[in-house]
């Protein structure tokens, strides 16, 4: 079989096989791919391609990084398409192709738990339109009115005569049919494919080693690179001694990348990395060499009392009420920098010629990758493209901060015509994150004689993720993300508690450590502050924490419903087994309502988390089995953060360079997780992130119940408790 | 140059002796199912079996493995997911991003070699691989399921 023949066949099979094609080492320039596909495979519309053998290829613009969006989006298209689910495969269109077709696939960005909730409507419309075109094709063939035909499971039937034809047989004709002007989407109540707990479409290749991740990509003539950027934030390369390593095996070149980094390019990655480790580099550490965790904490602490702050929510008059004749409760919490620590380290592969630049990237935002490729290559965007690969974890890391891609393109420019794959070592990855930002929070509240909260002031001091990204945030000092879950109403993240005097404000303090979107974003810190402090208030008022929250949540029945669901399941109010203590938390974020109950024990200074009960109301659910996995996984992620997650800063750099010092949760620490899905049906909320936020506070409140001690400085491991 | 027996096949591999087995497998033998996660024997993504024992290949020089030692990678377990461990993983739809899963599966294979019916404590003690997506509870369930089917087929 020639390479061309192989490539053509491979291309027909979908994402996994297309990636397999890369690994076989062929590469077709994009235009040839498109022509080839058009010649062989009729595109019914942008979302749906159908082979003569009835195989359905559904195009997915969002990125799969483990969260199951690939399967969920395919279910939504397939539901409206009325196709046979067992014949469904998927592929990623490229961002370049999308751009050429007027962004026909919409937004590629995959973050903020938006994959499904923001595109469900247009992907379903895509599936429905394709179905109508297939029916129209069959009706044309039979010369009967379309209204006499119906479609189910990839078969079109002419109802009066009982004649039938499969999708595959009419797909090429359907491609020439007029797309319907508008389509009616099905009522989710009659869904047969969407809404069902179907297995993922991408599991098998992950069990055999066939799934090609970015680090696995092989292209003909490919070179490999390892890189070091100045470990001190804001530092630069002063000098390096290329001659010291240029004779090492396989080394092609030592390349300075921007002002900040040096890379070795070699035949294999291990050769490149070995030479990099041997390369003498002198850094100019720049202005931040004296920054420490301590100096950052001082900077934030000042913000806790600062006069100047941006108001997120203000109701009534908090200051007057707090100064009155009330019982005052106050507490200060702090939350450290944390790292995403995706299992697959950052990487990108680029191929540059003077006419064209292409990159292969595990990216959460293909369009952002494409503009970066164009910017760094200096070529018009039409001459660039990005091939997306499945991500070995994303968690927000691979959306907006794609320096590894920038570096890969710079390296590719040093080797025109040869693809260069850059893989960051774990150390490089840990030292150059886009860190879950540092914040502190001071909470003050007034309780009246009945134990009711009459005033509540929450002052957040700390870093803004959007400040480096958006001019208007720099101008106004207002970062809306800081108030996630604390908003006065709205469908994204509304504060659930009704308090007549409420003030939530933010003093922005931006230390020189780059912040980023981290699975759950600011909702994580905010939920921890609010839910632990509300637990403190309940205790001070001498009222059961569930009862206390019930009163405060009177106006927000959806917030309350998920809380009631976990309380009931965990057995709140009933005696627990000996030594077991419970805690609760709730929040709203990413459009969903979530709550958790934790059962823990503390014996001899050692904490064990035995059981988590989590409830989530996401409105609609596209795949309950995958939603459950996301909820479960979010406790591994959220509890890793709560128990261990901490990047400390010394000398202007992160001190933790690998998993030996950056601890994460492992099998023996993972509690049982029971997930309750309570979709109330009238909205679309996110799944991947929100439950992370309740993991920490539910456990910390249980720790208080067990020990009488409040953990207010995260992570928990710094509070003389072993896990 | 190293002579290695990988998935039952003797291969002469052109590699500097101190190269970690992981990179010899990935870059010279072309077996990329075994993953790079940390490089310091902390995460388990690079787990392979050597003579049936789970080994973190990122911290073991290729030259330390003798030609008679049997190296088994995920590709060698079965390349069509028919091995009972892969079948259990498939039945429970374990992977999320999947990056850690080859290492998990190989660690499970070693555990089931030495302990055909592992208890929860055995699993907690032996499976120390990191999964950032949080598949731990399903990995645990899949190991138990694989143990059941494997012991049934031994009896049968
Ligand atoms: S890569 Fe070998 S243990 Fe992490
Ligand atoms: S499945 Fe993603 S790291 Fe384990």
From TrEMBL, chain A:
PROSITE patterns per UniProt: TAT (PS51318)
Domain of life of the organism encoding this protein: Bacteria
Chain segments annotated as coiled-coil in the UniProt record: none
Pfam families in alphabetical order: MoCoBD_1, MoCoBD_2
Domain Aldehyde oxidase/xanthine dehydrogenase a/b hammerhead as annotated: residue spans: 208-287
GO molecular function, one term: oxidoreductase activity
Gene3D superfamilies: Aldehyde oxidase/xanthine dehydrogenase, a/b hammerhead (3.90.1170.50), Aldehyde oxidase/xanthine dehydrogenase, molybdopterin binding domain (3.30.365.10)
Signal peptide: none
This protein's name: Aldehyde dehydrogenase
Automatic annotation (TrEMBL), chain B:
Domain of life (superkingdom): Bacteria
Protein source organism: Sinorhizobium medicae
Pfam family, one: Fer2
Enzyme class, broadest EC rank: oxidoreductase
Domain 2Fe-2S ferredoxin-type: 1-77
GO molecular function, one term: 2 iron, 2 sulfur cluster binding
The name this protein goes by in its record: Isoquinoline 1-oxidoreductase subunit alpha
E.C. number: 1.3.99.16
PANTHER family: BLR6218 PROTEIN, OXIDOREDUCTASE WITH IRON-SULFUR SUBUNIT
Alphabetical keyword list: 2Fe-2S, Iron, Iron-sulfur, Metal-binding, Oxidoreductase
